[in-house]
Amino acid sequence: MAEHKKVVEEIRIRQTWEDDWFHNKFLLAGVLILGFVAHILIPSQGRNIDDKIWESVFSSATCSTLALACVISLTIDMHMRTHISAAAQAGLWITHYVEKPFFEKKTEKELKGWETFLRTPCRGEKKCQGILTDARYRLTWPHLHILTWLIYTIYMTLLFKVWRKSDIDNRRLLLFGFVLTHIFLMVFSWIGHTFPSMFKSQTWLFSEDYHSDWGGLQYVALCFFLTAVNLIYLYWPPKKPKPSGGSQPKECL
User: Per the UniProt record, which residue ranges are transmembrane (predicted)?
Assistant: First the structure.
């Protein structure tokens, strides 16, 4: 069947592109590490290398670079999720319009096509769920985005530290990177969890609810909540140091 071969080739191409984009993220991380090491190794007069490392890590330039890295990594993740979504939709077409009509004519009722097998629901029988319906197995899928979350975690950790000691001008630059990063995070949440209206996806891993649009909105709301919490922490006034105890010296007359 020509249409079947065309869809199979489409799935193969999408999976190849997904793998290529995943490799590109490691190239991004390698470039960042190489640039940081090169900056550290540049000789500077009168400065200890340990002090230089400390100043370079906790600096506005490093935070801005990590913010840009987060934006690029999230953009790559958008492309990856687009390819995953397209491959999944192609697999659904094979399931409903190729495998089911073909195998329904067979006498062996237990015989299933590959795409149908991957989507075996087996509700109430957790041991026989397919690779695309087993919630516990799908928890391992975020490994595709683990590098993005690692860069984001390092970025936010350094940002909280640098923000406290920065002046107004530096804070404007840091705030711009913060806003840009979280805008892309919300866009990724929408793109990664939204499908055409003819498809429905499982909103949460361990629930039986399927939606087409609401799933994306829920994840965007979670990103908005994360952004609000981070902003509150950034602008939360630092604790004032308590005065040390002990007696005060008397004034000399």
Answer: 26-44, 56-76, 175-196, 216-236
What is d(CA 171, CA 191) in angstroms, rounded to the nearest whole number?
30
For residue 80, give every residue at least 6 positions away whose Cβ sits within 8 Å of its Cβ, in sequence order, or none: 18, 21, 22, 144, 145
Strands (E), the chain: 201-202, 210-211
Task: Quote the pTM value.
Answer: 0.76
In whole angstroms, give the CA distance from residue 94 to residue 10. 12
> Six-digit token pair at 150?
């690692």
Residue 17 CB-half CA count within 13 A: 18
* Tokens matching residue 56: 């370079």
Residues in the chain: 253
SS3 of residue 3 by DSSP: helix
- The residues, any chain, with a CB within 8 Å of residue 141's CB and separated by 6 or more, are none
Q: What is the dihedral of CA 166, 169, 173, 179, to 10 degrees?
A: 90
CA distance 72 to 246: 54
135-191 confidence digits (pLDDT tens): 566 666 657 788 888 899 999 999 999 998 888 888 899 999 999 999 999 999 888
C-alpha atoms less than 13 angstroms from C-alpha of 161 in its C-beta half-sphere: 14
**φ/ψ (deg, to 5) at 211:** -140, 165
